[in-house]
Design a protein that fits this description.
39% helix; single chain; 18% strand; Rossmann fold; 22 strands; OB fold (Dihydrolipoamide Acetyltransferase, E2P); globular; seven-stranded parallel sheet; 676 residues; binds adenosine-5'-diphosphate; binds magnesium ion; alpha/beta
């Protein structure tokens, strides 16, 4: 068996199981081996039954005393009970619809049980524990990310089969490099993380795999960068932004003027611009982009503006139309669901150079789109795009100037490290007259009171966003849609019986989404229940309240961005973070957000506390999704990888000497594009 063979050929995996694996991003044997454990159960130091901790799961050692025959309980489930214990306490073990585990246990023998301990002091309980013999079992077992229908023990068996079945595991790292950093070879490292003897092995294996992943990343980024650098940029001489600024209904903030000037300077330079425009939600990034597009248009160049969702693309097209049409820039909107005839016409206008600005989603990247003279490419909410997608956009022209906009603050040192010479402009000033969004963390008990308040807001003509409860990860879009519909029917409607409430979710067609959004924007809906599709950039100034259910499940930066959807039109605005999570850390996190509106401080808090979905988690930085390395904590490995990448490329610019590594670089960026 080879690294790239389909997992269908693996022992114990059929068509059905293979489909489930796909949900975890696994379709080849190699990908299976890169499904790294997210945790380990350490069987080497079991607890006595009486002192086993109540919080979380743990391993206890106990002797089996007796087994009860299986019996039916309410709901038709079959219950199997086993009585065990040690000299400190009794332990009752139960399984539902699973007689097999108990069958294998022998009375009078000792085992290790892993699970959550409950029950009282005298008799403690464990439901459906995992079991190992007290002697001769694996000292540690991995815990894998799970998805519906595939559980850790099954994944572990498949991984074992893969490790045994592979003919050879080729090592992409040159041997000198391995020796220099004292890294195990690839095959050993994989065994160490999947089937470790102890934590030391896990560490050693991980260190090697992290280094390899970061080296691949650094090589990829360096190659992408050097490609852009060699070419001449479109020439966009500096223009006077005075007339453009004067045409606005407000005056630009100092930060907006500064950022615009920095961009104009880049545009006039000999090398393509590669600039990140960073600014908190509502800081007015769109206007800065418009200024750049204005300058490009004056010099006769076309621009492209790419947004992550169709809703946002439409909104941008309207805004740009308003801002730029008076200066003769023709704005074309390109979306996935356009009619063939309209699309042909638009494409023709783009190819002929009549469209000065093309706004769209990734549809802008598709093969049929040919620009007459693309000079500037802007991507909004950059963290949603893969690096590769940005590069595809850049490939639409020889070497257009690139401007990426993001509300997600990235610490400057880290940005420089991963992006190299990407320049950064920061909008550190909000337009005047904004009042901070009043934010409250509440529990479900207060929900009814909150709805009373919402009703009052609606009576005053304001509008409300609801972000519905999140379902568990890995259950798919259909389940999330159902959750949104249930929340609307069972929570919102009964509490706001006379109000007009719309529903927005990821399963709607782009046109349907746009229609719902238009209704909401036009005030034909009082409230909008949504999955997090509204997270990104939409501007409805009349909306004054944001309600976020399951707030504990989001990183603070994500909550802050959601909150930024309200409070855009002046007047008071509110955000309710609803959570029934009992954890102290969760309470503290949410209260922190209630007390601050500073995006950087919030990102900092996420960094320091590493809550769920922290902003450097998946999908947040626009880099390919990393499988094992962590850009925030593996900084030493990142520096080493950066040095080695530079040395490798200096000696061998096309990586001919390390073909496996070169192939891996290619692949990382392809996977990254597919992820984002
Ligand atoms: P973001 O940085 O989140 O993309 P937007 O560009 O959507 O922010 O701007 C948010 C809102 O602020 C928009 O309604 C926009 O018209 C308004 N705005 C932008 N700049 C200014 C300004 N200088 N003065 C007043 N309002 C502004
Ligand atoms: Mg925006």
């Amino acid at each position: 068996m080879q690294w790239d063979d389909s997992i269908r050929y693996l022992k114990g995996v059929g068509e059905k199981r293979a489909e489930k694996f796909e949900k975890l991003g696994v379709s080849t044997v190699g990908q299976l081996l890169q499904l790294y454990p997210r945790d380990y159960v350490d069987y080497s130091r079991p607890w006595p039954v009486a002192s086993a901790p109540w919080e979380g799961s743990c391993v206890v050692r106990a002797e089996v005393y007796s087994k009860q025959p299986e019996r039916r309980v309410s709901g038709g489930r079959k219950l199997t009970k086993v009585l065990a214990g040690d000299e400190t306490a009794m332990l009752e073990l139960t399984w539902f619809n699973n007689p097999y585990t108990a069958e294998k246990l022998e009375i009078g023998k000792e085992y290790l049980f892993y699970g959550r301990v409950g029950g009282g002091m005298g008799k403690r309980q464990m439901i459906a524990p995992a079991v190992q013999p007290a002697v001769g079992g694996a000292p540690m077992t991995p815990v894998y990310p799970q998805t519906e229908g595939i559980q850790t023990p099954y994944i572990a068996r498949c991984v074992a089969a893969a490790l045994e079945g592979l003919d050879a595991i080729p090592d992409p790292l040159p041997e000198e490099m391995r020796r220099k950093y004292r890294l195990p070879d690839k095959a050993s490292a994989l065994r160490m993380v999947h089937r470790p003897q102890d934590m030391r092995e896990v560490q050693a294996g991980r260190r090697r795999l992290i280094f390899e992943e970061l080296l691949t990343l650094q090589l990829g980024l360096s190659l992408l960068r050097s490609r852009g650098r060699r070419q001449d940029a479109p020439c966009i001489p500096p223009v006077d932004l005075g007339p453009f600024f004067a045409s606005l209904p407000f005056s630009p903030t100092g930060a907006q003027r500064r950022a615009s000037a920095e961009i104009l300077q880049d545009l006039a330079g000999p090398a393509p611009m590669n600039r990140l425009l960073q600014g908190d939600v509502g800081s007015g990034k769109t206007l800065v982009a418009a200024a750049a597009i204005y300058a490009a248009g004056r010099a006769g160049w076309q621009s492209a503006l790419m947004a992550p969702t169709e809703i946002l693309a439409r909104q941008h097209a309207e805004t740009m139309q308003r801002l730029l049409a008076p200066f003769g820039v023709r704005v074309a909107l390109l979306t996935g669901g356009m009619r063939a005839a309209a699309k042909r016409e638009t494409l023709a206008a783009i190819a002929a150079g009549e469209a000065g600005l093309v706004v769209g989603t990734h549809a802008v990247l598709s093969a049929g789109v040919e620009f007459a003279a693309l000079g500037l490419a802007v991507t909004d909410e950059q963290h949603r795009f893969g690096v590769r997608q940005r590069q595809l956009l850049a490939a639409k022209a020889k070497a257009p100037h690139l401007l990426v906009m993001s509300a997600t603050p990235i610490p400057r040192t880290l940005a420089l490290l991963v992006y190299g010479e990407l320049d950064i402009s920061v909008l550190d000033e909000l337009p005047p007259g904004r009042t901070p969004v009043k934010t409250f963390a509440i529990t479900g008990k207060k929900r009814a009171d909150m709805f009373g308040f919402l009703d009052g807001q609606i009576a005053k003509g304001r509008q409300v966003y609801f972000v519905c409860p999140l379902i568990e990860e890995g259950q798919g879009a259909a389940a999330q849609m159902q959750a949104a519909a249930d929340y609307l029917e069972h929570t919102v409607r009964p509490l706001l019986p006379t109000r007009r409430v719309g529903l927005m979710h990821g399963r709607l067609k782009p046109k349907e989404k746009a229609a719902v959004m238009e209704e909401f924007a036009a005030g034909k809906l009082d409230a909008l229940v949504s999955t997090t599709v509204i997270e990104v950039g939409v501007d409805v100034p009349n909306a004054s309240v944001m309600v976020i259910e399951n707030a504990e499940r989001y990183g603070l930066s994500a909550l802050h961005q959601l909150r930024g959807r309200v409070g855009r039109g002046g007047g008071e605005s509110w955000c309710f973070l609803v959570s029934d999570h009992p954890g102290e850390a969760v309470r503290e996190r949410l209260h922190f957000l209630c007390g601050t509106t500073d995006g950087f401080a919030i990102a900092r808090y996420d960094l320091d506390h590493r809550g769920p979905g922290d902003f450097f988690g998946r999908r947040q930085h626009g880099l390919p999704a990393l499988k094992i390395a962590d850009l925030m904590t593996d900084t030493r490995a990142l520096h080493a990888a950066q040095q080695e990448a530079a040395a490798l490329l200096a000696a061998d610019p096309r990586l001919d000497g390390v073909p496996l590594l070169a192939a891996q670089v290619q692949r990382l960026f392809e996977d990254g594009a597919a992820m984002n």
